[in-house]
Task: structure prediction
Amino acid sequence: MIETLGFANAAAALGVGLLVGLERERRKGEGDRRDFAGLRTFAVTALLGYVTFRVGGPLLLGFIALSLGAVVTAAYWRNLDKDPGITSEVALFAVLALGALCVSAPALAIAIGVVMAGLLASRQTLHHFARSQLTADELRDGLILLIAVLVVLPLAPDRYLGPYNAINLRTICTLTVMLMAVGALGHVAVRTLGTRYGYPLGAIASGFASATVTIASMGNIAAKQPTHLKVLSAAAVLSNLATLAQMALILSAVEPALLRWMWGPLLCGTLMTLLCGGMLMLSRSRGRADEPIKAGGAFSLKLALTVTLMMTGITVLSSAMLDLFGQTGVVVTAVFSGLADAHASTASIASLAKAGLLPFDGIAVPVLMALSSNSLSKCAVAWFSGGRGFAAYVIPAQVLVTLAMWAGLAAQRFA
Result:
């Protein structure tokens, strides 16, 4: 069993060396410009790393690495005037380390080897992306987003502060990151699919994070690119599909029987959203449908912070109203909490119904009140972020979607 396991690990090391070496062999060149390392060199180096670590451990592996470094340095200086790159040299050291890693974790070594071979094979694509496709503003925004996700967000304390214990710094940071990520997602979708389809599909996907935030992002872009006003308005309206889908998922997760009392509003709201969004997408705009994005960055940090602070203020107001009215009315609480987030209101209402504190047939009105107040927030965000032109398309559509849900409730009750 031990011998079989050893052969399997050695075979993994050989496979990593052959895979990376095969890619390097294709770029090795010929004649005077021929590189020093190819298929056989990488395969032997991977086996060397495996055998060295298996026999002598880290100390012997370090000595072999220093010796290999001397050989690689000599080869590099010999070809310095022909090829100043060091990709093959670094890859050779990586293969040595991966061969050693196969002693204890062959699966991890193989996975890293496959990723490394893919990166090496994508040389031209990556260079073209970095030099021609990626702008300086996009690079800056990407770094800001990574800093916010990996540094700021983990350090933000997850506890409630301020009046009515309604302010949570972790939540504020999460909303800010979410808004930046939504903007970046829409930006990538547009760069990939074009304006006509990229904005709507990106808005629907990012709407699952926050439809309100998505509308703010679309409005911010609309202020910079008025030629795409109708397409961006359609994207903002279509983000309601994610909201309605989440409503159905929340209700079914808490108590599947609750969907019986909400299928009418959800169905009518979905149909109206598709109708309004489709009409805006199909209508003619001043700009070409396939015109590329003109905004430099992937998102607006100023908009992210502004919208987050606005939503935080709404949360404080909702908490104040809840403290003032207590449990005297679920509808009042749903209205004010829905200004910030309709999902939390829906979940709390569904939980009350499941606990027997609210009849199943009495959930529709509070849920629709929460959705209606959330629509009011979306209208305000549309006006604030995109201006009068953007709001002129989004607000009427948002009103029609809300009225369609109430009409669906009325039709369901009279059916």
User: Anything to note?
Assistant: The chain has two domains: 2-129, 134-414. Residues 134-414 form one domain. The radius of gyration is 29 Å.
